[in-house]
Amino acid sequence: MAQTQLQSAREGIVTPAIERVAERENRDPEFVREQVAAGEAVIPTNHAHEGLDPMIIGREFSTKVNANIGNSETTSDRIEELRKLHAAVHYGADTVMDLSTGDELDTIREANVEHSPVPIGTVPIYEAVKRAESPEEITHELLLDVIEKQAEQGVDYMTIHAGVLMEHLPLTDGRVTGIVSRGGSILAQWMEENAMQNPLYTEFETICEIFAEHDVTFSLGDGLRPGSLADASDEAQFAELDTLGELTRTAWDHGVQVMVEGPGHVPMDQIRGNVERQQEVCDGAPFYVLGPLVTDVAPGYDHITSAIGATEAARAGAAMLCYVTPKEHLGLPDAEDVREGLAAYRIAAHAGDVANGLPGARDWDDALSRARYDFDWREQFDLALDPDRARDSHDQTLPGDNYKEARFCSMCGIEFCSMRIDQDARDADGEMDALDTGVDLDASPAAAVNLPPVGTHDTSAIPELPEIDAVAHDEGEPADD
């Protein structure tokens, strides 16, 4: 049986996945191996995911971003989900979670794995509910069957809500928003109806054996995460976290990689404490956080409220950020919502890396700033996180090609443009030195995700997508690294 990345790393083996990760992160392969061996980083790589371009999640590496997609009982089909997957990869998602709860679950999952160069995650309890038709009818055998089947299909990591225990449920009684995790609420109902302990907890070692066979990574779910600021950092949340620490060590004993999911709604002043507590309780296992949302008052703008919290979480040591779209709490995201959510979270991740002083992370910022000061509009667009959005915003008021050479934009006009005034003053009397802030991005030590353009996964092993509408333009697939 093939070994897991963790088992190989512990034996001192630098796997091809580690080599590829080292290349993408501009790090020494031996350092990558040591981080994986210690459990402080994970490389989600199911043996059956043939088109995967390996990536790494860990606090010593560039901050990663996950995009959630998936259909519901009322909306979306296989083609729409592939359209979302295409948008997610194009706009820079490092992993994609298929959270489908509607029809065609197997068809959608298999299509996503086949067409994705990034790791695919799932939440198998959703399919278990669909097959059982009600939460209380789920059996241990059904759960294990679903998990094993998804592992065989090539899913790279799975959210397993094994930390929600019967004794934790009374701790949620005084909450404002109760249990907001879908998986957590399903398992709470199962335990109440069956008067038995969480089956994902009692069967955890069997799940570890399945994961070890296929090298599936655990994403230990936070089923009791707070769904409002009022519930943040409460006894229920931390009781589950303590259990997740125990489960992390159990998975490691089986040679299985682990990351741990974190809270959704947390006031700004509590975010660092949450990250540091997880790192201590879970012995440094990578922390994967949803947001957190730092205020509850902005439905329709929760990609912003959460990106604020995500930036602080990344600065504190969170390894991966789960994006939130403008549709959060309101509806099922479409491809444009995926674009908006990823833009917000790529900004948050990059800002965290800059703040943490990751090698070369700020070089991209400096290169764009130089282009801005030089009025090199085309270079500024090319360096932008979302070049099409930047170009379109400029061209709404100054669309002509001649304005690509102009020393002003429509905000200030030529008379009040501060950079033009500064340049002219430096040229006029020589009392102020001319500026030279050139940056050679080709020589930057930054990781690939901290260099333009985003969405540069190796897609050479991915089959052609079926005929779907372009995401937002006609540029086709992202370029290879």
Automatic annotation (TrEMBL):
Pfam families: ThiC_Rad_SAM. It comes from the Archaea. Residues 470-481 have a biased composition (Basic and acidic residues). [4Fe-4S] cluster binds at residues 409, 412, 417. Binds 1 [4Fe-4S] cluster per subunit. The cluster is coordinated with 3 cysteines and an exchangeable S-adenosyl-L-methionine. GO terms for molecular function: 4 iron, 4 sulfur cluster binding; phosphomethylpyrimidine synthase activity; zinc ion binding. Keywords: 4Fe-4S, Iron, Iron-sulfur, Lyase, Metal-binding, S-adenosyl-L-methionine, Thiamine biosynthesis, Zinc. Substrate binds at residues 68, 97, 126, 161, 181-183, 222-225, 261, 288. InterPro entries: ThiC, ThiC/Bza_core_dom, ThiC/BzaA/B. It is an enzyme of class 4 (lyase). Residues 458-481 are annotated as: Disordered. Pathway: Cofactor biosynthesis; thiamine diphosphate biosynthesis. Zn(2+) binds at residues 265, 329. Its cofactor is [4Fe-4S] cluster. It catalyses: 5-amino-1-(5-phospho-beta-D-ribosyl)imidazole + S-adenosyl-L-methionine = 4-amino-2-methyl-5-(phosphooxymethyl)pyrimidine + CO + 5'-deoxyadenosine + formate + L-methionine + 3 H(+). Its EC number is 4.1.99.17. One of its GO terms (biological process) is thiamine biosynthetic process. Catalyzes the synthesis of the hydroxymethylpyrimidine phosphate (HMP-P) moiety of thiamine from aminoimidazole ribotide (AIR) in a radical S-adenosyl-L-methionine (SAM)-dependent reaction. HAMAP family: ThiC (MF_00089). Belongs to the ThiC family. This is Phosphomethylpyrimidine synthase.
